[in-house]
Amino acid sequence: MNQFTLPEKRLTAKKWSQLNSAYARQDIVEELIRNPKLSVATLSDVCGVSRATLWRWKKRYAAQGFRGLLKDKRSTKPRRISPEVEQKILDLRQKLGYGHQRIALYLKRYMGVNIASSTVWNVFKRNNLPNLYMTRYNKPAKCLMKRYEKEFPGDTIQMDVKFIKNPQKHMKRFYQFTAIDDCTRFRVLRIYTRNTTQNAMDFLEQVKQTFPVAIRQIQTDNGPEFATDFSFHLDRQGIHHRRIKPRTPRLNGKVERSHRTDEEEFYSRQRFEDIQDLKVKLSEWEKH
Question: Are the CB atoms for 158 and 252 separated by under 8 Å?
Answer without folding.
Answer: yes
